[in-house]
Amino acid sequence: MATDLPPVSDTVTQVTINAYAELSGDFNPLHVDEEVAAASEFGGTIAHGPIALQALFRTLTDGLGVDALPAGSRVAVTYRAPVRPGDAITARAEAPGEDGTRAAACTNQADVTVLSATVTLPE
Amino acid sequence: MATDLPPVSDTVTQVTINAYAELSGDFNPLHVDEEVAAASEFGGTIAHGPIALQALFRTLTDGLGVDALPAGSRVAVTYRAPVRPGDAITARAEAPGEDGTRAAACTNQADVTVLSATVTLPE
Questions:
Q1: In angstroms, rounded to a whole number, what is the distance separating the alpha carbons of residues A108 and B96?
Q2: What are the pLDDT tens digits along chain B (123 aa)?
Q3: Which positions in chain A touch B40 (Cβ < 8 Å)?
Q4: Which 3 state secondary structure label does DSSP give B76?
Q5: Per the CB < 8 Å rule, is B72 touching A78?
Q6: What separation in angstroms does the CA of B40 have from each of A47, A73, B36, B49?
Q7: What angle do CA B54, B70, A68 make, to 5 degrees?
Q8: Is A46's Cβ below 8 Å from some Cβ in B?
Q9: What is the Cα B84 distance to its own chain's centre?
Q10: CB-CB under 8 Å, A54 with B30
Q11: CA-CA to A17 of 20 to 30 Å: which in A53, A83, B48, B103?
């Protein structure tokens, strides 16, 4: 019987966010300028969207025992809440449902869902 | 009338991939060990999945004039082909269709689609 995949946790820091800014070229102040971000509606810096996917990808590749998701893999993500420096993100992916898709989610240390996802692997 | 968003291009290098390995903790040899990766079915290192999203996210945030995608945004990605060091990735997002979703894709310098996506922003 198919089972849920082992969860993977990852703590996001401002160092992570700054490194991601360097590699992506996205230096939006909301991500990297603590003073500007503190004055925004978010009250502080938030992580770039793809950062929150790290733990989810590791749950999938580690749990499935693959080096990378195969071509044809579909990952449909809904962003639900910001990820902030210091957040400990835990990714979980369930066993496939009757339609063959896996429900997945990333939660923070306060058990707030920061993103939910549906993962469909190729046949 | 709604229009397509301006495309954003980004060249992925082994330096980018190594930096992403550091920040994500995913040091799979397929990403970071050129010798091992050369002997794999891929014939060389490939980028982590979230790296290919960088240009797409920048197309969306730059084109929409927002600092970050708002909560409730849905990005459904199908991974179609590996991204390799040296690839120049161009992300494009179309104007919303009748159902309100935007079709999007990232192509490489050979015009191969490396990922396709459907983007739905909250009402």
A1: 32
A2: 578 999 999 999 999 999 999 888 889 999 999 999 999 999 999 999 888 888 999 999 999 999 889 999 999 999 999 999 999 999 999 999 999 999 999 999 999 999 999 999 997
A3: 67
A4: strand
A5: yes
A6: 33, 19, 7, 17
A7: 35
A8: yes
A9: 12
A10: no
A11: B103
